[in-house]
Amino acid sequence: MITQSLPPVPEKFEAVKKALIKMKFGDALKKAEAALPRLEGSDAEAGEEVRAWIEAIATSGMEDAVALVRDGQVYKGVLKYEQIETRFKGHDLSKQAKAAVKELKSDKAMALEIKASEKLEKIKKAMAEERKPEDKLKCLKPLLSKKYAETLAGKEAAETAAELEKQVD
Q1: Cβ neighbours of residue 149 under 8 Å, at least 6 residues apart?
Q2: Distance CA 73, CA 110 (A)
Q3: pLDDT attached to residue 4
Q4: Are 141 and 164 spatial neighbours (Cβ–Cβ below 8 Å)?
Q5: What is the mean pLDDT of each run of 10 residues along the chain (169 residues)?
Q6: Which residues lie below 8 Å from residue 79, measured CB to CB, with a gap of 6+?
Q7: How many CB atoms lie within 10 A of CB 78?
């Protein structure tokens, strides 16, 4: 995760700055790479710093996604890859992120983990609308099957169900 703030943007990088404000990092990177040859002196140095900063965001994001998947947080990793795909649209980094998601979804175990987590997100929204513990329990039922028992989402659903059952009794 990039914690360093955006370095000063040269005046001749106004288009880059506008793209960055819109979180269109792929567009900003393309514009920076196109503008850099026209810059001189301190503007060139500042422009290179901005370009390097944008690349560092992508590298950091990809590393974060890899780490999340490696640590078993597949769904969060997929969300991170999808964020990179969107923000770096038009750049190779977007294509790399899209390919990573496709690869994860092609693996049967990973696909199940992703599907379970997507279901859990929807279930959490439905549960937020329910007041009674028994109604919240009903929302969890789809994830309490054997199919999802070994997924992170299935385990979280089981823990939540156990807590809700205590409230019902």
Answers
A1: 155, 158
A2: 10
A3: 66
A4: no
A5: 73 90 92 92 92 91 96 96 94 93 96 96 91 90 92 94 87
A6: none
A7: 23
| Distance from C-alpha of 54 to C-alpha of 2, rounded to nearest angstrom | 10
For residue 73, give the amino acid letter. Answer: Q
Q: Which amino acid is at 33?
A: E
Element (H, E) at 81: helix 74-87
Exposure letters 134-169 (e unless 16+ CB within 10 A, then b): eebbebbebbeeeebeebbbbebbeebbeebeeeee
Amino acid at 151: T
The pair of structure tokens assigned to 95 is 């294509």
Q: What is the pTM of this model?
A: 0.82
User: What amino acid occupies position 95?
Assistant: K
DSSP 7: P
